[in-house]
């Protein structure tokens, strides 16, 4: 397999190039690494110069990906925060019992506890995703950042975003069930199917990127094992 075909996205491509360069440095004599060419350049200087365009392309790709994902995470955080304030079923405003005045009407139901938990997970995971993608924007985008730092942040950011989407869908589904629990009908089945379809659609569209990022972060750590007689490659 051509090493330039490993990974998807310019940032992950840059990571593979860095890992290959590191693997080569481990098997060649140290004198070769410290030897300069006729222009007075070291091997690392030549690598940096030849991969400058790829580094810039990787920076652009990473920022575009972080922008799109952060926009989605912000929308999710806005929606689930509003859902936490306007809870399904409303509050107890009857005033019959002073100790229950203002409490949610569905507070004693299991489905309400599941809704509260799902909404909280969606809020916190979306906020975490926003912070992670924001840290990608503030990165230095130095050459070494593409080896582990940026792919790791992207992996955790995508994971938090996926968790927030699943949790938001669960919160919406259980809120609909709470509202119509007395009238079980075909509409509940339709809502559940649409919610599942939404989650599966997101997983289908972003699983490839998430998997490649996960593969780059963890599997690529052991992709190259330097040996004096050559390089063993595990893919």
From TrEMBL:
Query: Out of the domains of life, which is the source?
Result: Eukaryota
Give the transmembrane region(s). 65-87, 121-142, 154-179, 185-207
Keywords, A to Z? Membrane, Transmembrane, Transmembrane helix
Which residues fall in a coiled-coil region?
none
The answer on whether this UniProt entry bears the keyword Transmembrane reads yes
Per the database record, which ranges form the PGG domain?
60-177
InterPro entries from the UniProt entry: PGG_dom (IPR026961)
Protein's UniProt name? PGG domain-containing protein
Q: What is the lineage of its organism?
A: Eukaryota, Viridiplantae, Streptophyta, Embryophyta, Tracheophyta
